[in-house]
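We emphasize that the prediction below concerns an isolated chain of 372 residues; any contacts that depend on oligomerization or on bound cofactors are therefore not represented. The input was used exactly as deposited, without trimming of termini.
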Amino acid sequence: MYISNTATQNLLDVILKMKVTDDEVLFIMLGEKDNLHLPLFISELNELNISFFGGIFPGIIYDEQKYEEGAIVTKFPVLGKPLLVKGLDSGNIDLPDMTEILKILNKKYAAMILVDGLTGNISRFLTLLYSKLANSVNYFGGGAGSLTLKQKPCIFTSAGLFQDAAVIVFLQLECQLGVRHGWERIMGPIVATETDRNTIIELNWNKAFDVYREIVERDSGKKITANNFFDIAKGYPFGMLKQYAECVVRDPITVGSNGELICVGEIPENSVLDILKGEATSLIDAAGQAAGACKTASGKKVTHSFIVDCISRVLFLENNFYRELHEIKTKFKGIDQYSVPMGMLTLGEISSYGEGFLEFFNKTIVTGILYE
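Result of the prediction step, given as a C-alpha cell string:
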C-alpha cells in the first residue's frame, strides 16, 4: 500500500495492522524526498522484532502514479532473513553463506536484490552471486539512491542504513518476469577500447566524449557540452550487444575532466557498443511487452504485481510517463484482474535475462508477477 503520511508513529501503526509473521519480511520503499527519520524508524521496528528491508529511491510507483515522497509497504513470505552485503565499492565482496538456502530451493523461487545504484562493482557483485546460485532462482530488483547522483546511504535492514551495500532476500514465491527497453540503434558497432569499471575512457581508440559527441550532435542537431550533457545524453544511451537477447543499455550520465564518460553500471573493456535513440512510442510499447511477457502467470494465485522502472525513462518520457504506467497496468489486469502494480524508480535495474543470466540494466523496465 502507498502511505503518504510517514510520521514514524503513523507508519508503525500501519505496519502493526499488517501483522507480519515470523516467516514473512516487510519491504519498505521510500521516495527520496520523504523526511522519515530512518534511524529512529529502524530502531522502532527492531523493538517490535519485525524482519524488514528497504531502500530510498528517486521515486516509487503505486497503481498508475509515481511519487517522490511517502512510502510503499508490503510483505513477502520468505525462506530466510535478508542478507546484507557491504563494501561493494572496495571490490572485495564477501557474499554470505547460502548453503542452507540452496538446500530448500525445491522450486524456482524469486530472489529480490537491492543495491546502492551509485556504488562500484555492481556487475562483479551480481556475477559472484550468479556463480553461487546460477539459474536456481529468478532474480529481480534495482538500484537505490538519489536523482542528484550524490551518493549517500540508501539501503536499510535491521542492521542499519548503508551505502555501497546490497541486500538479497529469498522470497517463498515464484515469479514470471518481463524485461524490455525500446531504445533503437542509430550508430554502431563501436568498441570500448579502454574502460575502468563504469567509466568509458576510449571509444575506437579516441577520447570517448569526442566520439560520442560527434555522433549525437549529428543526429540531434544540438551542441553537447559537459554542462548540458545529461539533458541531451538521456536520449542517447549505449547498447552492449548480446547474442541471446535485446542489448543491455548503459546510461552515460556525466563527462570527466579528460573526456571520459561515466555511466551507471560497468562496461567491460573491448565491449561492442551501439549508440541508441529513443522515441516515446517505442518505449511505451516496450513497457507493454514487458508486462505482457508475464502472461504465463495467468491463473496462478498472484500476490504482487511489480515494476522496476529506470528513473531516466521518466526524465525522457516526461508527461508521457503516465502512458507507460497505464500500459503496464492494462496488461497486468489481463493476467490478474485484482492486480495493483507497485514498485520503484531506480538507478539501474536487475533481472534474470535471456537464458536465465543475471544482468544489471539501465533505461530498462523490469516487470514481475509474483505468485504462490
